[in-house]
Structure formats: C-alpha cells, structure tokens
Amino acid sequence: MTNHIDRVLVGYAGTAGSTKSVAEFIAARLRARGLTTDLRDLAEKPSVDGYDALVLGSGVRDAALLPSAENFMWHNADALRTRPVWLFSVGISPSLRGPLGNLLREVVPTRIAELCELIEPRDYHAFAGVVPRTGAALPARFLLWLCGGRYGDLRDWPGIEAWTTGIAEYLHGAVTA
Predict the structure, then answer these.
(1) Among the listed residues 52, 56, 29, the one whose alpha carbon sits nearest the alpha carbon of residue 40
(2) Distance (Å, whole) CA 105 – CA 1
(3) Segments in 126-156 forming alpha helices (H)
(4) What domains are there in the chain, each with its CATH number?
(5) CA distance 14 to 60
(6) Distance between CA atoms of 100 and 123, rounded to whole angstroms?
(7) I need a surface site. Which of 2, 11, 105, 159 has the fewest CB within 10 A?
(8) By the 8 A CB rule, do 148 and 11 touch?
(9) What b/e string do you get for 80-102 counting C-beta neighbours within 10 Å, with b at 16 or more?
(10) Furthest-apart CA pair in the chain: how many Å?
C-alpha cells in the first residue's frame, strides 16, 4: 500500500512572534524538501480537511499551550489522531539551567501531556523562545533567575532544523512506503 503525503499544515499559536518565526522556519524547511506546506495561525481555526500531516506549535503560558492551540486540538482531536502530527511548544523551560532548571526542563506540563494523550502526536518537542528583559514584573524576573533562566533570543535553530529534518524524512518515507 502506498501512502501519499501531498499537503502539510504547519499551524501555530503565538503572541509575541517567537512561535510564529519557528513555525515559518519549519514550513520553509519542509517546502525546501519538496513538501507542499501551508502556514496558518491556529486562531483562524483552519480546517484539517485536505491535509495529510500536521505540525502544530504554540507558545507556552502558565504551563499550558495558548488557548487557540488547545481549542484547535480539542475541536479536531478525532481528525488529528488519523494523521501524522508533530507538536512543538516555544517557551522558557527548555532554556533553564542549574538544578531547579534541569528538573523543570525535563517535565512536560500536565495540560500539554493531556493534549499529547488526546491527539497522539508522533513527537512533542519543547523549544526555547525569546525572553525579553524589559516588561517583566519583579516576581517573574526573580523566578527566572531562581530557575537558571536568561534573557535574549534562545531559539536553537540547529535543533529546530534537525527536528524538521526528521519530520521530512518520515514524510518522504510515508510517500515511498
């Protein structure tokens, strides 16, 4: 039996642009590897009809994906379980250091784990994002310091590239299988 992966949806939910730029990067890399790829904001509630595979990403706030990402996954759970799906998040946790940071970095937050159980993605990966120094309240800055966090653009582009390469390799394998 031959599986055909003709169209891939890269959907994202973000607030400050970091998640969108990661999604744009992933979509561009999938296109460069010959996959027809659409990039859509999950707040627009795109249809999953016509897509053979999905890569879904969201920023993380309060140990959960953003509401538009959660709502999209809950609303489309049955359809998502019938397609290859990859899930990524963009937040602070992957960039944490030190004993407490190492512990927090290894934990998948409960609400994200529940969504993974619901939609059964092929993989879930947490990426670091951009952590601005300005605008954060004193308690948030203290907590970031306590957990070994740092400020700046912490996105791991080589890591994102490697993750995307794995997706493309899987999808190309599904086409030729």
Answers:
(1) 56
(2) 40
(3) 138-146
(4) 7-176 (3.40.50.360)
(5) 9
(6) 25
(7) 2
(8) no
(9) beebbbbbbbbbbbbbbeeeebe
(10) 58
